[in-house]
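Box S1 | Example of a co-folding query
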Amino acid sequence: MAFINEHYLKLQAGYLFPEISRRVKEFTESNPVAAARLIRCGIGDVTEPLPPACTEALHAAVDEMADRETFKGYGPEHGYDFLREAISENDFQSRGVNVTADEIFVSDGAKCDTANILDILGHQNRIAITDPVYPVYLDTNVMAGHTDTADDAGQYGGIIYLPCTAENNFVPATPDEKADIIYLCYPNNPTGATATREQLAGWVAYAKENNTLILFDAAYEAFIQDAEVPHSIYEIAGARECAIEFRSFSKNAGFTGTRCAFTVIPKELTGTDTEGNAHSLHSLWSRRTATKFNGASYPIQKAAAAVYSDAGKTQVQELVTHYMGNAKILREATIAAGLEVFGGTNAPYIWLKTPNAAPSWNIFDRVLNEAAVVITPGAGFGNAGEGYFRISAFNSRANAEEVAERIGAMAW
Ligand code: MLT
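Box S1 (continued) | Returned holo structure for D-malate
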């Protein structure tokens, strides 16, 4: 028998969302009546159809694939130029941010990219993560053998945890010790918090002083409403020398089931070998991509490029307005119910304190049983998430209103 990667045995319980699904399945099987009115606000999965500009582009591209003259086989591993150029122009250059098309790597998902990036990074790196955190950052480091086993409190040895609390507005101060890699996600999943320009500048200064690589997940940037909040880490001077940015079409354009995302690696960004020689991370990722990936499919990239057409821009804005309208409804209802509420103003997630410091899985069970609504327990995002729960604003308007009413009517 082949040996297994034993680091997987260090992982705790299931991945958060499958664990939620397991509990929901149990509930729906034993409560068929309640199951019929179940509303899911757990995983941040979009509910509204793709923008028409995207589906039209998708149909047209499928027709091209059906015609010998326009058929395409393998595409460029890093993405088609038409998409990389549209991203560079619309997401960066038009905001005065210098990211060129050849620094953009198109992929089939930001989740995979934030996980796969470890391929090009050394095992000896000291990793820092915010707590609570999107579980992928932590679990992939456990899988790669970058941690010891978890202690009784569920924290892995070898990881620098940076607690994000109401006291620090869910943006941690830079650590006193040196981290080689730090994962940051703003607008934040799960807390819905944003980082100000000054806070991000503080992180860039820390990174430059300590030779730290920032892995910046900006999957939710489209939901920023406040003009002062940066959309990209590259809006901060010096970030090109210390940060990789991950973006996605999943949440802004509803591509969770369609799959398209991209990663930005500036040309001047380097990592070091054990002898202290600098190497281009862009070149390493390029090499890795060429070996392990054959590119996102042509029709999907055409659909993604349509996000940047005039019609696409309007339609994406409508989707964002829709989900942020839900967030407002959910925020107002939960505040009126007497809950302590965060997020939901620049991000599609509402982050709530559990009343009387109740364990978050207890709140998960209560909301499921009393309101037939699925939320996400904060504990699933890490120790500092305990005592909180998350409501996703990704839903139809009717469901958001219904959830607001049901949760609002619970005896908190
Ligand atoms: C979430 O609910 O945290 C996200 O949907 C997870 C993801 O984007 O993979």
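The two ends are 54 Å apart (CA to CA). The chain has two domains: 13-49+311-409, 55-309.
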